[in-house]
Design brief:
about 280 residues, mainly alpha, 13 helices, disordered C terminus
């Protein structure tokens, strides 16, 4: 579907929700590019709020596209233009939805967007935390805020005034890791690949904070792996990772595990059975 200025909002929202819900699948990038073109053509216009939400809903999908196809660049240009245009517009609101829990809001946008045009809250949502009147959702400052949130998904650390949030991929990785440590790998999580992945990441870590987080992860996984993996490769990778840690870490090496896997992709979902496959 092309994001034309007269397209029904309900249809657009449904198309964007399909991309959001299955961001890892193959979709027609034209849906996203048409939305970006509409926004960059009028970044402060009457429908800027709609195109901004469309690009927000499809942002995780865009992060997986090749940089060479130009999709991410086009989307970022449109979002940055909207932020520049709207972030300093007059506003009398005490707060805005973009400052709330994005992961709770995203699945609801498919039902919110068609109603925002007319100002009516979704059925049963009028008194729920997180619902604001259409005026607040469409407030220029709020639209600019969501533009920055989408920018931060596509190009982390390149914008300001955004709520702290783990990316969707990072949240999924945390969930996969938790399932391994619980002894019940999530469907599609490869045990052997995951063990090797974190062991190799630790061996390659160069920053103290990154290494500290990985030591915690690999130590925990080692307790889980012993006796459950019947081939030496993953165990050898864990051992090699731990053996690479200096005996006297540099002072101030405490940190979190969030940065621990930036050097390699997240664990692949292939098989939940322990072993080498």
């Amino acid at each position: 579907m092309n994001a034309t200025s007269d397209a029904p909002i309900a249809e657009l929202a449904a198309a964007w929700e399909e991309v959001r819900a299955e961001y890892y699948a193959d979709h027609d990038t034209e849906l996203v590019l048409a939305c970006a073109r509409a926004l960059v053509a009028d970044p402060g216009g009457e429908r800027a709020w709609l195109w901004t939400f469309g690009l927000l809903m499809t942002a995780d999908y865009v992060t997986l596209q090749s940089a060479s196809d130009g999709t991410a660049a086009a989307v970022l240009d449109a979002l940055r233009a909207t932020d520049r245009e709207l972030r300093r517009r007059p506003c009398a609101h005490d707060g805005h939805p973009y400052e709330g829990d994005l992961d709770e809001q995203l699945p609801r946008l498919v039902s919110y967007l068609p109603l925002l045009e007319h100002g009516a809250p979704p059925a049963g949502e009028a008194h729920r935390d997180g619902w604001h009147c259409a005026e607040v959702w469409r407030c220029p400052r709020n639209v600019a805020g969501y533009a920055r949130v989408a920018i931060d998904i596509l190009a982390p650390g390149t914008t300001d005034a955004v709520p702290a949030r783990l990316s969707t991929a990072e949240q999924e990785e945390v969930g996969d890791l938790a399932s391994l440590l619980d002894g019940h790998p999530a469907p599609g999580v490869s045990v052997s690949w995951s063990l090797s992945h974190y062991g190799k990441a630790l061996a390659a870590a160069s920053e103290p904070a990154e290494r500290a987080g990985l030591v915690v992860i690999v130590t925990a996984l080692s307790r889980y792996a012993v006796g459950l993996v019947d081939c030496p490769g993953p165990l050898n990778d864990l051992i090699a990772g731990l053996a690479s840690v200096p005996a006297a870490p540099a002072e101030g090496a405490a940190g979190t595990a969030r940065r621990c896997t930036r050097s390699s992709p997240r664990p692949r979902r292939t098989s939940s059975r322990p072993g080498c496959a």
